[in-house]
Every structure is written in structure tokens, then in C-alpha cells.
Amino acid sequence: MKKLIAALIAAGLMAVALAGCSGASESGGETGGAEAYADALVISEQGYFSAGGTVTEPVEGVYDETTNWQDPTRAGNTMHVDHANVFYQIPANDNKNPIVYLHGAGQSRMGWMTTPDGREGWSEIFLKNGHSAFLVDQPRRGEAGQVSEGPVDTLAGDQAWYTHFRIGRIAPERYEGSQFPEGDAAQDQFFRQMTPNTGEYDQAVIVAAMNEVIRMTYEKTGHKVILMTHSQGGLVGWDVDLQYVSAIIAIEPGYAPSEMMSPGTYAKFMEADEKIPIIFYYGDYIDNGSEDIASTQFWQWSRQSCIDFAEAYNAAGGDATVINLPDEGMTGNSHFLFQEQNNADIAAHVEAWLGERGLN
After folding, report:
1. How many domains does the chain have?
2. Where are the alpha helices (DSSP H) in 93-202?
3. pTM
4. Which residue blocks in 179-315 are alpha helix, DSSP H?
5. Alpha carbon of 42 to those of 92, 94, 343: distances in Å?
6. Residue 95 domain-assigned (yes or no)
7. Domain with 339 in it: what CATH number?
8. What's the domain range around 149?
9. pLDDT grade, residue 176 (50/70/90)?
10. For the chain, which end, N or C, has fewer CB atoms within 10 Å of the first or last residue's CB respectively?
């Protein structure tokens, strides 16, 4: 038996060796070689973990192991709920500046990982730049859906998403000059990224879990994190503890902290001894949005709240920048600018900003 196993191992090694030689021609030239993999993403470590959450009190009664699942009352059972779920990847060229990604409403980490037309998402682009990726599904969403009570949000909203987030006036029409991926297939993929809340939205629950995500990421990597948020995730981002955060990149957050709406959060940033750098990104169809669509005024107000915050933060000794992409020569972007046709160009802009602050 040992001889048989040894023979099989030897045969396997020979097959690997032959496969390795298949890239060379008979004349000794390379048919593929290292050049073919020059742009390859090499991952040194990846995995999953959960962070935060609670355990429910046991259901009234005594657990009976002999009936277990057959007992419909679930007497004596508990549930682990309201945690975040994290998928992480650490690249071989790790630059020691990990990025924690937090999605917005109706989405999961998938939005950072790909585009509706199947190109590289931001997590892959920044991984190639050396940033470890820690991709979060917030509590009661995606792979962190375990919750003690519902309801699951099943309200229809494809058309409302499309209009409110400035992809076009009415699906499937896109605004003129739109960077949103074209075609029925891409639009279908976009809508199928959406995922419901499995319970009531509770920002305090999400913030508690995100604090654990950030702490555990710091413990794993030994480095503070760059917190990248989108939309509703931006509201959570303002409330997290900043002890292990090196910078915030807020992609069209609902709004920035203000003295009137969130005085405690506002003071946290303005009075901090160490003020972290913050950058906001906004796309197109805001100044030039349709006046009869109520969302246009909302986005104008949202961006202005960030401008007001940045002015106050900078006056207090901080470092905050609001980027209006059309002013940078990048037009046609919706609320989902990290998924659109020029997402690599916008990512390069972000990377340059990080480099100016020694974060790459």
C-alpha cells in the first residue's frame, strides 16, 4: 500500500512538472510566462469572521435534547443575533493600510466586489494596490441576517431605486452621458444585488457591531483601518469609535454630522485631539438634476451638509475634502459611482488622496 501511495504521489508530481513546462515552446520560448500573470491579484490570506452581536435569553421552558428540532416551542433555546459578518482578503503586497468597507441601504458587501457588467469592483482594485479588504455585511443584512424578530422588508422598489439614486428618470432609461453600465443584462444584475433587511433598522446595533469589526481588524492586522462607507453606511461611519480608524472615505453619505442634527457626533470630530483625514465623493446629476424630482433637492442638501462639515472641520484643524466629480472632469456618475464604467478612474483619485496622507 505504501508503494502504491508513493507511486501516486510521484505521478502527481510528474503531472505538475509537465504542466509547468507546457508554457514553453519547443524552441525554448515562452507562450505565456510570468508576463501573463503580471497583473494577477495574489492573496496571501482570506477568510470570514463574525463580530459583535448578542445572545438571546433562553425561550421559556427546559430544553429537551431528545426531541431537539421536533419541539416546535424551542423551549430552552437561544439565538446568536445582530452581529456583522466579514469576508477578508490580505494581498501578498500588503501595504499595511487595510480598508473596512461598509455598504449602504438595500445592499451587501457584494456591491464593493464587482460591477453590474462584471468588471473589477473597488475591493479588487484596492487589493491590487496593496490594501487588505475587510468587507462587511451589517447586522440584519446579507450573511449577517440572523435576528430575533422580523419583519423582513419585502417592499418593491426597483423603479424608486433607479430614480432616487440618479441612474435615470425611469428605468431602463439612463441619463444622458451616464456611466452606469449599459444594457438589460447589467441592469438585471444590478437589481439582483439588492438584499432586504431581515429586521428593523437599528443604527445603534450596527454601530456596536462595526466597532467590533474595526477592533478585530486592528487586532488581526496590527494597523488602523481606512473606513470606506456608502450611503446609509455613512451614517453609521460617523458614530463608530475612531480609536482604530486612520481615515474615512464617505461615498455619498446621507449627510455629514452637524451641530443641529447630531451635536454629540459633531463634537466628537471637532474636539478630537487627533483629527483623522476625511474625504467625501459625490457624483453627477445633482446640480443638473431634474427639478421636478424631489430627490434632486435631497442630494443637493446632502452634499451641502458635507461641505458645511468640511469647512468647520478644517477650521478646527482637521483635514476634510468634498469631491464633486464633475468638477474633477468625471461626469455621468450616479449614487453607485464605485460600480460604474469609470470606477477605476475614481479609485485612482481615491488612491492618490490616500498617498498624499501616507496611507498607501
Report:
1. 1
2. 110-113, 122-128, 158-164, 184-191
3. 0.90
4. 184-191, 203-221, 232-239, 263-270, 294-315
5. 6, 10, 21
6. yes
7. 3.40.50.1820
8. 42-356
9. very high
10. N
